């Protein structure tokens, strides 16, 4: 598989994030929701890479918004980004953040509220969250080990490195799953992130 690398330096503008969606009949703990379907169009590698770039830009934008305008502004922006990039409007999203543990929804953020809290904190239902997006990120690099495309869905796996204003680098192993949404855009429906294995 071809290795794809994405790098961005000092990007602070939140670009419209990814999109997704094939026919979806989602149910979350018994609640059933049916959504309209996009015209079938296979996802391309270029769309996946653009969605990843947008995710990185958005993370930097939230961090910058927090530094410049405070928590309320960063939370508002994070909500807009999650609504644009993730598929919570389609049903549960399988989101396992890097720094999340505990039971149930503390570890797996299948709800929009859980996702917003992970990125910016401040939600008493997720008291452990310090706000991953509030750590002064100023740039990022994405190294894809591979991108698997199956029609109206796609999966990518690789490393994501985020870099703060002091040049400190944090690298995580990341898997994203995308579907094409009813609006034709890609949306993230699977997001698994973990720290690289260490024998120590």
List its salient traits:
200 residues, alpha+beta, two-stranded antiparallel ribbon, 8 strands, 32% strand
Fold and architecture overview:
This protein has helices at 45-69, 71-85, 112-120, and strands at 4-9, 25-28, 31-34, 94-96, 137-150, 153-164, 169-180, 186-194. The protein is α+β, with helices and mostly antiparallel strands and 200 residues long. The longest helix is centred in the N-terminal third of the chain and has 25 residues, at 45-69. A 6-stranded mixed β-sheet has the order 1-5-6-7-8-4, covered by helices on one side. A two-stranded antiparallel ribbon has the order 2-3. It starts with a strand and ends in a 6-residue tail after the last strand.
Could you outline the blueprint of secondary structure elements for this entry?
Layout: E1 4-9, E2 25-28, E3 31-34, H1 45-69, H2 71-85, E4 94-96, H3 112-120, E5 137-150, E6 153-164, E7 169-180, E8 186-194
Parallel strand pairs: 4-8
Antiparallel strand pairs: 1-5, 2-3, 5-6, 6-7, 7-8
């Amino acid at each position: 598989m071809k290795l794809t690398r994405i790098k961005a330096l000092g990007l602070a503008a939140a670009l419209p994030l990814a999109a997704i969606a094939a026919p979806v009949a989602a149910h979350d703990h018994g609640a059933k929701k049916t959504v309209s379907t996009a015209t079938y169009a296979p996802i391309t590698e270029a769309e996946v890479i653009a969605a990843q770039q947008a995710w990185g830009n958005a993370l930097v934008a939230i961090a910058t918004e927090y530094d410049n305008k405070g928590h309320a502004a960063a939370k508002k922006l994070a909500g807009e980004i999650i609504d644009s990039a993730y598929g919570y409007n389609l049903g549960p999203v399988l989101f396992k953040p890097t720094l999340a543990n505990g039971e149930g929804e503390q570890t797996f953020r299948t709800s929009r509220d859980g996702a917003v809290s992970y990125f910016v904190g401040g939600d008493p239902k997720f008291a452990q969250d310090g706000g991953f997006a509030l750590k002064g990120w100023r740039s990022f690099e994405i190294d894809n080990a591979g991108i698997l495309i199956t029609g109206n869905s796609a999966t990518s796996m690789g490393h994501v490195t985020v870099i703060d204003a002091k040049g400190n680098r944090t690298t995580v192993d990341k898997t994203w799953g995308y579907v094409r949404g009813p609006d034709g855009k890609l949306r993230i429906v699977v997001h698994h992130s973990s720290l690289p294995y260490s024998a120590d």
